[in-house]
Amino acid sequence: MARKSVLESPWYWVYAFCTAAVLGLVLMGPKILERTVQNERSHQGRARAAENTAGVTPVTEMSTRDRTRSTLRPFYYLLAAVIAFSWLVLWWKHFRPQRQSNRNQGF
Questions:
Q1: The whole model's pTM is what?
Q2: Which of 55, 63, 89, 97 is a Cys-bridge partner for 40, taking CB atoms 3.0 to 4.6 Å apart?
């Protein structure tokens, strides 16, 4: 019995697209980070202006490139977990060595 192509497995495509997403994050990460810093600083500037208007000394710290509230790290972790899981399932279903008794029975 001929084995199906690996390209017919949905797990291969999950693996491939998640790998492409990680590559895209690595390439676009610096631009995304710059935009995130701009957005955070804009929000923090409004908060500081509100503190000044209220007569309170501003305590809101401004974001920098090295220190932002939101990062891409959760996306990397999520994609790494999906890549690992999809690769394991793909290996289990397509590449793992079959026992001789299963081959004879048509499994």
A1: 0.75
A2: 63
Tokens at 52, concatenated = 């000044």
Residue 60 tokens read as 């809101």
Q: Read off the DSSP letter of residue 62.
A: P
Residues 67 and 80: their CA atoms lie apart, in Å, by 23
Planar angle of CA 25, 29, 34, nearest 5 degrees: 150
Helices of type H across 6-72: 10-53
Which tens digit of pLDDT belongs to each residue from 20-61?
999 999 999 999 999 999 999 999 999 888 888 998 888 878
Instruction: Determine contact, residues 75/25, Cβ cutoff 8 Å.
Output: yes
Asked if 82 and 14 touch (Cβ cutoff 8 Å), the reply is yes
Any residues with CB less than 8 A from the CB of 69 and at least 6 apart, and which?
40, 63
The one-character DSSP state at 6 is: G
